[in-house]
TrEMBL record:
Residues covered by the S-Me-THD-like C-terminal domain: 166-356
Source species of the chain: Slackia equolifaciens
Ranges for domain S-Me-THD N-terminal: 7-163
Name the UniProt record assigns to this protein: DUF917 domain-containing protein
InterPro entries (UniProt xref): S-Me-THD-like_C, S-Me-THD_C_sf, S-Me-THD_N, S-Me-THD_N_sf
Length: 364
């Protein structure tokens, strides 16, 4: 166990924004929520999965909806209490720890805010190792763990509980309710025992996010003989896809998601080339000069060419210079069941999944 304070929050937010693969919400908004809660209620205890007891009950706390809308709505102080009270009433047992459902700007931060305000520890684990747009897209679904009951609340105080026949139905019904509530809600789902978290959770994700953030922040102090870009790629085990200037951004909010495409005009060694990246909250497919070079479930990340700070989809602006990087996904996503949940064909991308490390060989 160790404590999460303001400096740790800064680093976690930065690193998780990279793992968010363009989605997960504005890290600045999430960071403000977490820092505000820690200042008011004290630092948060971060515990390892193996520190959980057999009778512990763990719940992810997350925001559902379009990240751009959450920027306008925010999250109040009472939502977490009401969510946890209903879960405790449902099970007749108190929740003993919270966790992030994904790595992303907002959803890496909300559990910190919730833990601080509820006086609970946060577990160093998530259900993705990155961010995905839909509720059933978690490693817990691979283990047939139910998302029901799901409880959600909006900033006006509307509170709902649903039980569904599949995790996909949780997504369908919650998304409709989310749209009715103005585009975003706060939720808990996948109420789990310690054994379930240990078997299917992505361990150490909070610590890894913090280490990534610390590395990005100090990227100019890279080892002698390496450029910041080389060091960034080596540290993240990432693959260089394309460097370019944003030439066009098409974006729309539809059904509780941010959909769109960003077009990059090549700069530097990629001058004369063009890349396109399709996204649904998160970046899903990267095409360079007409050839697919990366798809979900691998991570497609855009970072500033100078600072290597992640650039989420809702911050894409004409003229910005970015480096597109591909990161290998968590190993469970490459299984047959994982690809059914988050493979390219699920998102309407007409290609089979090929690992990013194989696809980039065609760029050489």
């Amino acid at each position: 166990m160790r404590k999460i304070g303001i400096q740790e929050i800064e680093d976690i937010a930065l690193g998780a924004a990279l793992l968010g693969a363009g989605g997960g919400g504005d890290p600045y908004i999430g960071k403000l929520l977490a820092i505000g809660a820690v200042k008011e209620c004290g630092e948060v205890s971060l515990i390892d999965v193996d520190e959980l007891s057999d009778d512990d009950i763990v719940v992810p706390v997350a925001s559902v909806g379009a990240p751009t809308i959450l920027t306008e709505k925010g999250v109040g102080e009472s939502e977490f209490d009401r969510l946890l009270d209903m879960i405790s009433t449902y099970y007749g047992k108190r929740v003993t720890a919270v966790m992030p459902i994904e790595a992303g700007g907002v959803n890496s931060m909300l559990p910190i805010a919730a833990a601080a305000r509820l006086g609970l520890p946060m577990v160093d684990v998530d259900g993705m190792g990155r961010a995905f747009p839909e509720i059933q897209m978690v490693t817990f679904s691979i283990g047939d763990i139910s998302a029901s009951p799901m409880i959600f609340i909006d900033e006006k105080g509307n509170l709902g509980l649903m039980e569904t026949v599949t995790n996909k139905w949780v997504e369908n019904i919650c998304r409709a309710g989310c749209t009715a509530c103005g585009g975003s809600v706060v939720s808990v789902e996948y109420v789990m025992t310690a054994d379930q978290v240990k078997e299917y959770g992505v361990r150490g994700i909070v610590t890894y996010s913090e280490e990534l953030g610390r590395t990005i922040r100090a990227i100019k102090n890279c080892p002698e003989g390496m450029t910041p870009e080389q060091y960034f790629l080596e540290y993240t085990k990432g693959y260089r896809l394309f460097k370019g200037k944003i030439a066009d951004v098409l974006r729309e909010t539809r059904g509780g998601f941010n959909f769109g495409r960003v077009v990059l005009e090549g700069i530097g060694e990629d001058k004369g080339g063009e890349a396109q990246i399709e996204f649904q909250n998160e970046n899903l497919c990267c095409t360079v000069n007409g050839k697919i070079v990366a798809t979900a479930p691998d991570l497609i990340c855009l970072v500033d060419t100078e600072t290597f700070t992640p650039v989420p989809t809702d911050a894409l602006k004409y003229g910005k210079r970015v480096l597109a990087v591909g990161l290998p996904c968590y190993h469970l996503w490459r299984t047959e069941r994982g690809l059914e949940l988050v493979g390219p064909r699920y998102f309407g991308i007409d290609t089979d999944y090929i690992p990013v490390e194989e696809r980039v060989k065609e760029l050489v």
